[in-house]
Amino acid sequence: MTSSQTSKKQELPPTAWAVLGLLSFPGERTGYELKKWADSSLRFFYWSPAISQIYAELRRLEELGYAASVRSGPEEARAKRRYGITPAGREALAGWASDVTEVGPPVLKHGLLLRVWLGHLAEPERLRGMVTEHLERTTEELDAVREAMAHAATEPDWAFPVLALRWSERQHLAELELTRALLADLEGLAVQERQAGGDAPTPG
């Protein structure tokens, strides 16, 4: 590896490693197929990059010699480029995956909680409605996680993705519990405010 390649390796963002990780499983895949897989796996515990970002990372990985691509032949109506990991890419990915110094703490950016934090500026009913909507979305996401788990369980090479999805199932169950508790807290706060309003002196 040249000094230029070494420098680029050190600057690779986690998304590049995630894309390379998708390529580390058996088979070659198109950028579109990688996007579909990210949507049904990575997004449940990390995030799913945009298709444009996936292709940008694939180009970078090819430049580093970590990935290689082949173009489909005339037998396909629409030409496709399929990507696979190279031995150098697998070695680099194994080194990155084993490097605990770069793991870092999980980052929580909870859009709903930011709005609850600003609840003094919101209509109480609308705020409770937002929490209820989040409860419904999380329930739908839990169903999607379980569907992905069922599919992954049929693939012998996906034992570790199943573990990650199982963690995601537990995380969604915990999110449901926390959201129900938050909804109860908001309702309790509304009762307190109504009681406080009832105790106020009646204007003469």
Helix content: 55-70%
How do the helices and strands follow one another from N- to C-terminus? HHHHEEHHHH
Low-confidence stretches: 200-204
Largest sheet data = 2 strands, antiparallel
How is the topology of this model organized?
Blueprint: H1 3-11, H2 14-23, H3 31-39, H4 51-64, E1 67-71, E2 81-85, H5 87-97, H6 111-117, H7 124-152, H8 159-198
Antiparallel strand pairs: 1-2
Summarize this entry quickly.
By secondary structure, the protein is mainly alpha-helical. It is 63% helix and 5% strand. It is elongated.
Structure description:
The chain is mainly alpha-helical and 204 residues long. Helices cover 63% and strands 5% of the residues. The protein has eight helices and two strands. A two-stranded antiparallel ribbon has the order 1-2. The longest helix is centred in the C-terminal third of the chain and has 40 residues, at 159-198. The chain is elongated and about 75 Å long.
For this entry, give a set of tags:
204 residues, mainly alpha, two-stranded antiparallel ribbon, 8 helices, elongated, disordered C terminus
